[in-house]
Amino acid sequence: MATPGTSVLDRFLSSIAELVRQRDGAKLQDFLQLEPPLSDIYQQMVVELRQRYPAESPQKDAELHRRCESLVPRSKGSSSWIAFPTFMKLYFTFLRDVNVENLLETYNLLKGLLNQCVLALGDSQMGVVVLPTVLYLCKVLAKLAMGLDRRPDLIAHLLRLEGRSDQDESVEKVTLVEKSANVVREAFIKCLTDRSGTPGVQGKPEGRRVGIYLMANLCLKLLFQCGKLRNAEQMFASISAQSPPLTYFPASQRVTYLYYLGRYLFSNSLFYPAQIALQAAYDQCHRQALQQKRVVLTYLIPCNIIMGRFPSGLLLQRPEAQGLAEKFVPICQLIARGDYIAFREHLAFDSPANEWFARKGILLALRNRCEILVWRSLTRKVFIHGGFLGDPAAQRSPPPYLYLKKLETAVRWLQSRHVQSSLGAISFIPPSRALDAKAGENTAGSQIIYKAPDPDFADAHDPDTNGTDRIVSSKYDDYLAPDAYFDALGQLQENPAHTLTDGDPSADYSQHELDPYADRAALNSEDEAQGKPTPMMREIESILASLLTQGLMRGYLTHGNPRFAIPGARMRGAIPTGFPNVWQTIYARESEDDNVPGWVKPPKPAAAPVGAGGGGRVVNLSGARPVGAQ
Amino acid sequence: MSNTTQDKPELSQQPQQQKPPVLEEDDEFEDFPVEDWDQEEAEKASGAANDNAHLWEESWDDDDAAEDFSKQLQEELKKVEASS
Known about the structure:
The structure holds two protein chains of two kinds.
Chain A: H1 8-22, H2 25-31, H3 40-52, H4 58-69, H5 83-97, H6 103-121, H7 131-150, H8 153-161, H9 176-192, H10 212-226, H11 233-242, H12 251-267, H13 271-284, H14 290-306, E1 310-311, H15 313-316, H16 325-337, H17 340-346, H18 354-360, H19 363-386, E2 401-403, H20 404-423, H21 467-473, H22 477-480, E3 484-486, E4 492-494, H23 505-509, H24 520-523, H25 535-549, E5 556-558, E6 563-565, H26 574-578, H27 582-590
Antiparallel strand pairs in A: 2-6, 3-4, 5-6
Helix pairs in contact in A: 1-2, 2-7, 3-5, 4-5, 5-6, 6-7, 6-9, 7-9, 7-10, 9-10, 10-12, 12-13, 12-14, 13-14, 16-19, 19-25, 20-25
Chain B: H1 13-16, E1 56-57, H2 68-83
């Protein structure tokens, strides 16, 4: 063994020992460099490691481990910090063995190193010393995993060698990003469960708890990257239960956390709390942090649009909103216009606008949640131009109302309008895309939106066949009229003519309630439909019923001679009464509960005096005897 | 990615972050360059009035009857009414 103090390794070891004694976590992290390019002094140490503790020698390996054990102060009575020497030894072997040509191996070595460091973090006395190192290693691992996620070609050949190619789709693939998230989550739990000081909502960020949101944010970043948001649920629940209030943590951690929390709530369709979290992230963000403010706005704006609040010109003119207007303003305009076909086409799967929204993960929310607002606008316009707005001069007059027939007229007009524009040569809409416009011609299903017919049922609505022929020619004919069948006595009967084996529906079943051809009655009912509301009217009624249920329209529907009526409109007028402000309606309903799940706030001063005069009184019961005690 | 960085992609992230402050497609929420800042430096400074109200439009109903869509709708409704 070389004389202590002469080699870089020896000096390094004694420095580490000193830093551990001083509990200087920040400096310890600074010493434990591992990302290339390493400075000369580290490269010198790597050379020494390879000379003195070569990888091939188990004895030398054990010797290195013994040297690392001496880094931890041994105090009698308390258990020593055994996880730390093992970690240090892994650190040295990482430096000695790592081969960055093989990025998969590098990843695995690094993950092993981080795992061991997280174990060292778990120590109740000393753990906090490695907190900065854990964070550093988490970041390096995350960076590597996310880099490889973007460039899977760099390790594809290595995965193939291991037999873990993409071919096997029977098992769910756990990506490197998700694996990294799992390790970071372990570190997060170690931080959250530090029992020193005052834990929980009453506590302050001290000890390992200072790392709660650093780890949580990194874990969330990885989970968002690999699309495993569901795994974040438990994390938010643990934070709600055990974390000190968010406000005690530094601004960068608060803003980052509120951003991820808001996005999580958004993707769970909890738009109101999502809006609170994202607005807080925006408000607390550093004024000059344009990139972060912009990313927050990318979610805050759709969140507000869905709840009926559009971004103002003032907001869209801000530097961080650059380029966002052209994405969101068309959607707002389409909502206000009430052209549901144009709205649906704007966000359709094959629309040019779609790609950006899909990549941001806001396409489906916008498409599914905003269409109802488009219908509100359309109904409102039809009411203004074609409804009975009430007669304020009359002493007694019926309430304002709208014949839904007029809305049906408007829908058919919209459809014909779009068919024409899709046929026009100068149209921007390729002919194949005006599908909703042709929905009025659907023989089955919706008259308002187009859905590809289900092939299993396509035959049932072919107008050229009817009655028995239709049953026989359906795709179930191999069941209803097979080549051969077993009769009641169990004898095999040939059926070359392919007659219905259960008998003729009209001849044999007209007297019976139980009819094996259950669909038959419905199939022949078209002629009876004369005089009844059209299928489109039924759909319009259900759309309006949905608007009424959500409070986005106020009044009632009559079913026979379908109408939408707006009672109680004398004071405020028909339009404001029947079509209340969307945001105010949703806000009034949602703001009853301003609690944002996952956002820990300081406990309300419950013991503080309530009211000016009386004041609260604290009754000290410490001396009271239990009930029933003698 | 250029040839020089091809063999170590995990390290090439660093120089990329120093790109010019052009706000383009950046899906990722970047790390803040500073750990903490005062309320005064925040987007919504503590002393500032509640100006969030100006950021959002609550009333966006389109009541412009002269606008093309409304005008055509109006004509269509009249036409149908006259014919029935």
